[in-house]
Amino acid sequence: MAAPMLRCLLFFLGMFFFGTNASDEFSEELFIKPLQKGYVYSHFQFTTKWNASIHHQETFQHYHLFPKALGEVLLHYDVQELHLSQTQGLWHHRQWGYPIHDAPPGAELWVWFKPSVKDIDKTWTDLANAVSGLFCSSLNFLDSKNTVTPRWSFRPQGLAHQGYAYRSYFMRYGTLPREIVCTENLTPWRKLLPCDSNAGLSTLFNAFHFHDANYHSLGLHVRPICADSACMEEAIELSQSLSVVTDVVSTSNTGAPHWSLKSLFGNHLVSACPIASKSVIMVQTANSQEPLPYRLTPEPTSVEEVIRGDQKHSFAVYQVPSFTHSGRVLNVAGTYNDVSGLQEDGTPPPIHAHRYITGYGLSDGGISCLIHSSLPVNQSIIYLDILPWFTRVYFSSLEVSNNGHKVPFKVHYVPAKDRSRPHHLELSFMLWPHSTTRVSFTFTRAFLKWTEYPPDANHGFYISSAVITALLPSSFGYTSPPQESSQLSSIFSENSTSYLIRIHTESLLVSLPTPDFSMPYNVICLACTVLAIAFGSMHNLTTRRFIKEEAKAKRGLLTKVKSFFTRQKDATLSEQADAAESADQNDIKEKSKEKLEASNDKPKEGDQS
Ligand SMILES: *[C@@H]1O[C@H](CO)[C@@H](O)[C@H](O)[C@H]1NC(C)=O
Ligand SMILES: *[C@@H]1O[C@H](CO)[C@@H](O)[C@H](O)[C@H]1NC(C)=O
Ligand SMILES: *[C@@H]1O[C@H](CO)[C@@H](O)[C@H](O)[C@H]1NC(C)=O
Ligand SMILES: *[C@@H]1O[C@H](CO)[C@@H](O)[C@H](O)[C@H]1NC(C)=O
């Protein structure tokens, strides 16, 4: 009886250990880069690489480390690539350089569907709803009014056929600049990690510290990639990232920019995720040859130096398992010897931009975007701007100028349709060496129907960030890993000579002509008040009982008057009051007048008596 059961158990154990031959691996990395003026940029990178093809239906039947909830969404909506970011705060490129994944304030979703999808717009809406449920965000508000198909700005980031990648027919891009990112978005995102937050770098997640930071961004990217460098087989890569910029100077008690894992996240690191094949902390120590202004403790496992194009980057690398074995804790810290140079402005990255609203009043307005380039060569860029339909853009006013000279540009413009699609403006032009290029156009504001205003109508309406895409020849301020892999340690073996950047500018807030929504409220208040008063007295009159009053009632009134005056009266006047009570009822008034006078010149009378 026991033997078959044991065999059965062994069989299942065997299935578990040898039969499933799990073909995915997981790595966790934390990248720390101290920025100028006491800010510290921390980027958590969790990468799951699964040796399977995203195009095969059977792939999504057995899961190991890849999250099933996400796999089912990818399968059901025929997704080839999915890129989601949820961000709070604005990344300042000028001061902070380029982040690993650039993201606009709010939520951004862009997806490449498989060519088998029949109705892309419907699938996009359904997918947005599914993703919104998965991450507790309001992505379900991504409808045709804020979705476009960018023509040049976005290309598949992973493996794709040339014919497929060339046309962006299967791609959809949508943003929600108003979306607020909070703990309820962090929790479902964290649940997709194989170790959740029970072990490894994710134990450093501290919602309090993240939401207190100047910038934080959650990212999720799925794409097909090459399984190895020969690229004979496909793999699926899931990259989850969390970026935080913390102002250590203002959060520390000492006012010094010293940082440590404990000061950044409120905790030491006690373990590595046991199923991670790699668990690493990297600190970017220098962009170029400058000496390090701070001292790192403990000593890193190794120091890696990489030449990326014209720049040398060096990183201190900590292999987490070798620090946290046998119950020890790891608290990587940077201590500054000299804090004098910290308040200086550093060199800004080669390309950065600033976008703002022009004009005044509520009828006309405009948008200008200044793009600064400090490169020594001509640099071509692609500019994408998506404007809501209620800003009616004058296409004729579109101008790209550099120091007063008009710059020739190539344009793809899809005008808006009221209540159904946004303006989609894509420009491609050259940035001249060491110059500032201005893109500008004007618009007029449309009237909305009164039901189309949000509850806080006077807050204004958001316009999503513009996206600037360029392939830079220099890696100054650049931190992203190469295209082949999202793992940050793949930077060490990088070999390319051009660096893709995608900058998101500020999102804008415009106010539209807004009706006086307080007016109906005032009318309601006034009407209610009038009605209440009228109804009250009518009700009183109709429900009142009229009773003929007896003399007794008058007597009562008299007593009242008497008691009123007796309170003011002196003890010396008590006889007069007795007299008044006994007096004839007809001369009450006269009597009370007398009493009043009497009480007024009371001291005199008191003297006389
Ligand atoms: C995935 O495939 C590549 C190439 O075939 C191989 O080198 C790698 O070890 C595989 N990974 C896993 C987890 O099986
Ligand atoms: C940049 O392009 C302009 C024309 O668009 C040309 O006149 C200029 O010489 C170019 N500069 C460099 C450095 O290539
Ligand atoms: C770097 O590039 C050269 C040629 O451009 C190539 O031969 C070499 O294999 C590359 N190395 C790596 C690590 O990719
Ligand atoms: C009606 O009004 C009189 C005085 O104005 C008040 O004394 C009386 O209580 C009221 N009756 C009702 C039913 O409210």
Automatic annotation (TrEMBL):
A Pfam entry, by short name: Gpi16
GO cellular component: GPI-anchor transamidase complex
Signal sequence coordinates: 1-22
InterPro entries registered for this protein in UniProt: PIG-T (IPR007245)
GO biological process: attachment of GPI anchor to protein
Span list, region Disordered: 575-609
Biased composition annotated in UniProt, kind: Basic and acidic residues: 586-609
Name of the protein in question: GPI transamidase component pig-t
Organism per entry: Plakobranchus ocellatus
Source species taxonomy: Eukaryota, Metazoa, Spiralia, Lophotrochozoa, Mollusca
